[in-house]
Amino acid sequence: MNLKQQLSQVGRYLLDHELAWGTSGNMSARIDEEHMLITASGTFMGDLNEDDFIITHIPTGTYEGTHKASKETPFHTGIYRRRPDVGAILHSSPFYSTLMACSDTPLLSELFIETMYYLEHAAYVDYHHPGTQELGDAIAEQAEKANVIIMRNHGVVVFDDHLTEAQMRLETLEMASRMIIQAQAAGIKLNKIPDQVVQSFLEDSKYKPRKRLGGK
């Protein structure tokens, strides 16, 4: 399966599992140090074909072909420039994660195994209009210290070394957001895992090697 087919498969999965909707969202995958594939502007996430992916030059943001690259190209290129370890980026607006982005409800990573691992490094950026260089710069700056970025009143961006892990990171974020919001509505107090146990899990458990920022 080539990279375009992998991206198409992820797009269908995100739509089928309510992790994306309509044309609200975009994604990319690194080809090499200087090039990425990114969804074209206005594409429907659940029905992507090979013409819906644009080869884009990471250092300059310029792209090939007649189709226009996603308007969010500035933050995709910004992340890849700052994080050479990143191989895939997903941006979408899932219901519960976006509800978190539109409120002051804090994201918790100390809830269960997957949140300890996939949500260890999360950051927020203030609202900027979609597609602007201001948004691209804000996200690129936070990408140096996070693998999950919550865009206030907009949505979320997650990234990892390959598409499968980026998808899992997004699913974990949405699951945690749903748990936090529904527990809050039901008056249920969530018990956080103690910090020392979290650190022990990240360093000593047999789950997965700890994901270091920048691959370090």
From TrEMBL:
Gene3D superfamilies recorded: Class II aldolase/adducin N-terminal domain
Protein name, as recorded: Class II aldolase/adducin family protein
Keywords recorded for this protein, A-Z: Lyase, Metal-binding
Source organism of this protein record: Paenibacillus enshidis
Domain named Class II aldolase/adducin N-terminal: residues: 5-181
SUPFAM superfamilies, A to Z: AraD/HMP-PK domain-like
Keyword field contains Lyase: yes
